[in-house]
Queue: 3 jobs
Job 1
Amino acid sequence: MKKLLIASVTVAAIGLGGLALAQPAEPGMRHHEPVKEIVKHLRGISLSDAQREEIKTLVSAFKDANPRPKFGDIEKPNLDFASATEAQISAFIQTQLEEREATHFAFAQLRHDIYNVLNEEQQATLLARDAKRELDRQKHHDAFVKQEARFAKRIDGEVKGPKRKPREFLFEGIELTDEQVASLTELRESFKDASKANREKLRNFKDAQRDLVRSQSFSQDAWDALFAQYKDDLVSAKVEKAKQHQAMFQVLSSEQQAKLEALREEERKLREIFKP
């Protein structure tokens, strides 16, 4: 059970996200979910009837060529993450990236084609939205950093107010002891610099993908060259994330791991109810 639990969460952690037309999405791509992102970013663009029909045709062709996989057809990872070495994790992640690259290019082609359906004024609107979204993202990040700093002081009793335990979203539903909270806090602090650097690498990659998609230089060769340029950074970032999750799971007791596995299994079954 411990092996399955670490594997399930680690695979979720290393998954590469799809990228939306106007803004890269966060890691965690669900099949066809990026199409919903395209819809969101095209709101308020004032598409003509002809443009809507052209985009509808493009999206339909994409879905026909890239059918949604059935849940039972998705293979489970054959790697024991509980005892896997860094080299084994790296090889696994590299294989996952390469296997998904064809689908990522197909979606990039869709984004490129849709972008070219827009006129210059509509494209300028998307660019302006990007600039505003980036400013909003930075403001949100700065506010979050300040909130985290204040929260850390409250935990240490340096500011007024009741002490609170930090919420561990990775272990939501599990009651952690003070010792475990301290251990996880220490681990998270040790990961901070590496995580920040890796997030920056991933953002640079997604920004480069977005710029290429909107460029007249977009092609399969250009896309492959961009992927090759960032591949080592992507693999190293995902390996580091997997190692972090391994370390954090070691903090849990066997009973806590069993409870977390039961909670995740329950969530999986509930999701199945609502699958189309």
Note: Residues 1-32 have pLDDT under 50 and may be disordered.
Job 2
Amino acid sequence: MKLSAFLIIVLLTYSNLSQAGHHRSERNSFSVTIHSFSKHSNKDETIPFNTLGISLLPNERFILQVKTNKPSVPVKLQAEQGKTRQLAQQQWQWQAPNKPGLTVLRLIHPISKETTELNVFVMVPASNVKNGMLNGYQIGSYPRLPFKNMTTYETPKGFIEVTEANQDTKVSPHFTIGDFLSHQKGGFPKYLVLRERLLLKLEHIIETLYSKHFPVDSLHIMSGYRTPWYNKSLGQGPYSQHIYGGAADIYIDVNPKDGYMDDLNKDGKRDYQDAKVLIDIIEEMEGQSLYNKFVGGLARYRKTPHHGPFVHIDERGYKARWND
């Protein structure tokens, strides 16, 4: 009996290692960096992955810079809309269309055909919010002053419009824009704020999980963006990172896929200790200098009658730790 149990453990371990070893890379041989023209923006991001969602205002500009191991074979830029001006080899200035909506930028390697796809959401300006409402959708009110005068707590300058048609648009290799919608009631269109750095952090977490032999196909986003109105209805504080598009409550839901945290420590239970496994992996990741820019809040929460255990992450710009 003991030998059988041992063989089962070995087979399960081998299966996990095998699956992790066959993880399809979501990276290209080149990276893309976006540089914002606004000093109040944190859109100075290097994108190592093949997909990312970006949000900006109508007519807003940024610079795209490609870094490749073989600059003699330049990557090409294709833009569906907007205005493009090449500044140098592998460098362009791009200006968004003058109306809200979704458009796509593609950077394509001419030989390997590797493609980085940037799904650009041109936002509805925040000035369109009247009495806490945007096109019939309840937004509420943001704090008048940013917490500690930090850019990660500044009132959003615009909102991404999510429709039935675009809700499945990818914002990173493993997530869609619809994954981050506020859970408040109401039909389409809906609106949200979503920061690029949160998406990059989530993708880095997935890569780290694979390196630790947790072959996940995604992370379940239990709560992403919350409007200030909805956040207040939950009794949460006015400076929650959820209202700024910089936070997500997550758990691993792979086997079985049932809307509940998996048994990560293999003790036969699915509880608070499984959230600790996930939080320890993220803590270790954040301790590496490579991930300094993703520092933020990290906490684990116990199960309740309404949900299972989960982990909160955010990229507020300074280290914060707590537990429920």
Note: Residues 143 and 238 are 7 Å apart (CA to CA).
Job 3
Amino acid sequence: MTKPVLYTFPQSVWAVSLQLSLAELDVDADLKISPHGALPTLAHGGKSFSNAAVIDYLVSISSKKVAPATSITIVVYEDKIDPNFAFVASVRFYPPIGGALTDHPLPQRNDEEFAKVKGSFAPIFMSTHRPCLFEEACRGARGGTAQGLLRQGDRENLPSRCAHAKQGFYSASTAVWDSIKVFAVETLPAAISEGPFIGVATPGVDDYHVGAWIARIAFLLGAQKSDEGVAVLEKGFGPIPEKVKVYWSAWTARDSWVKAYPDRVLH
């Protein structure tokens, strides 16, 4: 049978989870760039799989046996801790055009934070290319979820600066970041029993998803390289449980991590 083909794009957080799983499971696959920047998709044997189902399939064809997914894999994909919405809702991520990254790591919760970096990509993106994010936050479309906000297409003649709509977005942003903190300092350490991984001695299915998730969160909070992760998480969230520190260290020491994050540079 031919090798699996993984259609992906480099900056996708869930594409990284697939790269971690490929390396950990010793599955040889051809990597191709998704032409539309869609969810990572794996094609093999006349079938196709997307998102978390890709890893389930890779586990099924790998000769290596790993700990199966538990409920935490479901949790890490919930809208309330969506790293893609956090990507949009992070002031720190967006530099002034042609400038350096700002150290400000927290959500766009009000006009002051939204305009924190004058001329940055965030206000331009939100007010011109995605005014519907404000609109949908205001109206609570698709339940007001983070994924629902991100999935809306551009629309014409929307009041992109509607004060009520902006406040809806700010509220959604704050709620997502609050939930992310709870996951990082409460949910994750509770899921790690003997450690260092959720899958115990070596990464299991849960870890492929959660490892990529926490790396993206550390990046959004300001970490550029792997060795900065714990310090940056503590700067953003306060004291980090020892289990999470050990989890981070165990992941970043693995060859699979270096393959997913060349030169240990996060993204």
Note: The first helix runs from residue 13 to 25.
